[in-house]
Automatic annotation (TrEMBL):
Active site: E192 (proton donor)
The protein's name in its UniProt record: Adenine deaminase
Keywords, sorted A to Z: Hydrolase, Metal-binding, Nucleotide metabolism, Zinc
InterPro entries associated with the record: A_deaminase_dom, ADE, Ado/ade_deaminase, Metal_Hydrolase
Highest taxon of source: Bacteria
Family, as annotated: Belongs to the metallo-dependent hydrolases superfamily. Adenosine and AMP deaminases family. Adenine deaminase type 2 subfamily.
Organism: Actinomycetospora aurantiaca
Entry EC no(s): 3.5.4.2
Stated role: Catalyzes the hydrolytic deamination of adenine to hypoxanthine. Plays an important role in the purine salvage pathway and in nitrogen catabolism.
GO molecular function: hydrolase activity
C-alpha cells in the first residue's frame, strides 16, 4: 500500500508553510532585507536542535509578511500544495502575536489569511484557528482575543503554541474561558517538549477539546488511560518530532504505541516548509518507517475525521471518502 489516505489536516501553522522560495520572493516584493546571502544560505539553517531553535527562524522569516496580500499569497500557496496532498478539510493555525510584535495588526493578518482561504480548491473545506503565544503575557492574549472577536472574520477556535518548556498552559485559563463563552472551539499544544502534566493542565484548566502533539503523555500511564477513555484527539506530527529532536528517529516514533494504547491519534504536518513534508509526506513516512498496517492507517485517517470541528453533514462526507480509500484493493 503506497497511496496515502484522504487527509483532514488539523495541525498546520500557516506561517510554517512559508517555503524558502516564497520567503525570498516576498522579501523582494516588500523590499525586506534578509540576513541570508541566497536560497542555499537560508536552507542551510533548517537543521534544528530543538523547538526554540526552530522558532527563532520561524519568527525571523515572518519579516517578509507585511500586507494582507502577503498573507493571502502564503495561504493560497499552501492550499494548492494541500490539495495535492489529498487534504479534504483543513483547520489552519495562525500566530497573530508574532505579527503584532512587528507592527502588523490583527485585522491585516486575519483578512489576508481569510481571503486566501476563500479561494480554497472546490470541495475542500477550511477553518481558521488563531493561537496565543504561550511565551508572551496572558494580558496580551486577552487583548488579542478582543481584536480577533472585533475583526468580524469567522473563526473556528483558538489554540496555544510557541515555546513550551517552562510555559504551562494554566496562565491562559481566563482567555480560554472567554473564547469558549464567545462560541470558539479550544485546542492547545501540550506534551511536545513539555511534560505530561501540561497535557493534564490543558484539559483540566483550559478545557481543550483536542491536544496538539501530546506525545509526552506516554510518560504518565494514568493520563494515557484517561486520554483513551475520553477519546481525546491527539494531533501528532511525526516529521516535526524528528526534526525538533523530540523523537530520535522516525523508526523510534511512539505512534504505534499510541495506537496500541487506544489513543485517538491522527497524523499531521505542523510546519511543513520547515520539517520536510506536508501531511501526505508525513503519512507516507510513518507508513514506511513504522510498517503500519492498512488498518492502522485507516484508524489514523478516521481519527482525524472524528476530531475535526465540522458539522454532521461534512463529517459524514469525510467518513465516506476515508471509507472509499480503505475499500480500494
Ligand atoms: O511545532 C511547534 N510547536 C510549538 N509552537 C509552534 N509554532 C509553530 N510551530 C510550532
Ligand atoms: Zn504545532
Amino acid at each position: 500500500m503506497t497511496a496515502t489516505p484522504p487527509a483532514v489536516e488539523l495541525h498546520v501553522h500557516v506561517e510554517g508553510t512559508l517555503e524558502p522560495e516564497l520567503i525570498m520572493a516576498l522579501a523582494e516584493r516588500n523590499r525586506v532585507e534578509l540576513p541570508y546571502a541566497d536560497l542555499d544560505d537560508l536552507r542551510a539553517r533548517y537543521a534544528f536542535t530543538d523547538l526554540s531553535h526552530f522558532l527563532d527562524l520561524y519568527y525571523a522569516n515572518m519579516a517578509v509578511l507585511r500586507e494582507a496580500e502577503d498573507f493571502a499569497t502564503m495561504t493560497r500557496a499552501y492550499l494548492e500544495r494541500a490539495a495535492r496532498a489529498g487534504v479534504r478539510h483543513v483547520e489552519l493555525f495562525v500566530d497573530p502575536q508574532a505579527h503584532l510584535a512587528r507592527g502588523v495588526g490583527v485585522p491585516v493578518v486575519l483578512e489576508g489569511v481569510s481571503a486566501g482561504l476563500a479561494d480554497a480548491p472546490a470541495g475542500m473545506t477550511t477553518g481558521l484557528i488563531p493561537c496565543f503565544l504561550r511565551d508572551r503575557p496572558a494580558e496580551e492574549a486577552d487583548e488579542v482575543l478582543d481584536a480577533l472577536l472585533a475583526s468580524g472574520v469567522p473563526l473556528l477556535g483558538v489554540g496555544l503554541d510557541s515555546a513550551e518548556a517552562g510555559n504551562p498552559p494554566g496562565r491562559f485559563a481566563d482567555v480560554f474561558a472567554r473564547a469558549r463563552a464567545a462560541g470558539l472551539r479550544l485546542v492547545a499544544h501540550a506534551g511536545e517538549e513539555g511534560p505530561a502534566a501540561y497535557v493534564r493542565e490543558a484539559l483540566d484548566v483550559l478545557g481543550v477539546e483536542r491536544v496538539d502533539h501530546g506525545i509526552r503523555a506516554l510518560e504518565d500511564q494514568a493520563l494515557v488511560t484517561r486520554l483513551a477513555e475520553e477519546a481525546v484527539p491527539l494531533t501528532v506530527c511525526p516529521l516535526s518530532n524528528v526534526r525538533l529532536r523530540a523523537v530520535r528517529t522516525l523508526a523510534a516514533h511512539p505512534l504505534p504505541l499510541m495506537l496500541g494504547a487506544g489513543l485517538a491519534v491522527s497524523v499531521h504536518s505542523d510546519d511543513p516548509a520547515y520539517f520536510g513534508g506536508y501531511v501526505d509526506d508525513n503519512h507516507r513516512a510513518v507508513m514506511e518507517a513504522l510498517h503500519l498496517t492498512r488498518a492502522q492507517v485507516h484508524t489514523l485517517a478516521s481519527n482525524a475525521v472524528e476530531a475535526a470541528f465540522v458539522d454532521d453533514t461534512r463529517r459524514a462526507e469525510l467518513r465516506e471518502e476515508v471509507a472509499a480509500w480503505a475499500a480500494q484493493p
